[in-house]
Amino acid sequence: MFFFVQNFEKMGIIIKTPEQIEGIRKSSQLAGNTLQMINGFIKEGVSTEYLDNIIEEYMRDNGAIPATLGYHGYPKSSCISLNEVVCHGIPSPKTILKEGDIFNIDVTTILDSYYGDTSKMYWIGDIPQKTKQLIDDTYHSLNLGIQQIKPGNRFGNIGFAISRFAKAKGYSVVYEFCGHGCGVDFHEEPQVEHIGRKNTGPVMQAGMTFTIEPMINEGKSRTRVDKHDGWTARTIDGKLSAQFEHTLLVTETGFEALTDVTGEY
Ligand code: MF3
Ligand code: CO
Ligand code: CO
Question: Taking burial as the number of CB atoms within 10 A of a residue's CB, which of 1, 50, 214, 233 is the most buried?
């Protein structure tokens, strides 16, 4: 009986082979390097489309394809989400970066058919201490989620760790968008929720690869997608949102942050 329950819960979650893991690692490192590379081009007055073009060129120069391009009709090579935009902001020549903007750049590479998905926050010039705190706390919440990764632990504990911290700090956690299995496909099983209940959800097993990508809001958690483009998700109250994302591997002893190129993990 126990056996059946276990199998049912793992249904659809792919355990990657060593060869697949090596491919996912390479793609993930390229995605991480893309986020480092673009830092040098971020300045006041440039458009988000300009940054998107550089991202696409960099990926192609390195033998990869941007996974978002044409994904369910998505038109660009990255998502660039400014201020109250929670996720899936579409790069545009009309969106010009200005002093005080905070924004997430989210990139996903396909290299040799393997996927790597990562995002981080950037900002222009001086931002208020409270805004910097939101960004730092969102980064910390991702880290708390990552620290839950080890064989035998349950996925619900990731969301539990993230939401307990974020709520204690007075923020809300977006529940309408989740992390996801990632590696041989863009969005695989399971859904990785950022609000979780302790000791619920599938059991982690070495060889699983997935993202954690908490979106943390200053105000209300609810989002609304722009009618005119069908993608841009904004906070309903217009307050700020921040997000960080890594693609992670469950190892025999814990985790490997596949998209980390900073040496932090
Ligand atoms: N990279 C996003 C994620 O973290 C997905 C973007 S899909 C797009 O899952 F179509 F909006 F680009
Ligand atoms: Co993702
Ligand atoms: Co992403």
Answer: 214
Tell me, in angstroms, the distance from the centre of ligand 2 to residue 117's CA: 5
Interval 94-138: pLDDT, tens:
999 999 999 999 999 999 999 999 999 999 999 999 999 999 999
- What's the pTM? 0.96
For the Cβ of 117 lying below 6 angstroms from any atom of ligand 1, the answer is yes
Protein residues within 5 Å, CB atom, of ion ligand 3: 106, 117, 119, 245
Structure tokens at 187: 């969005």
The CATH number assigned to the domain with range 3-257 reads 3.90.230.10
CA of 160 to the centre of ligand 3 (A): 21
Cα 258 from Cα 247, distance rounded (Å): 6
Q: Of all protein residues, whose CA lies closest to atom 7 belonging to ligand 1?
A: 68
- Cα–chain center distance at 90: 16
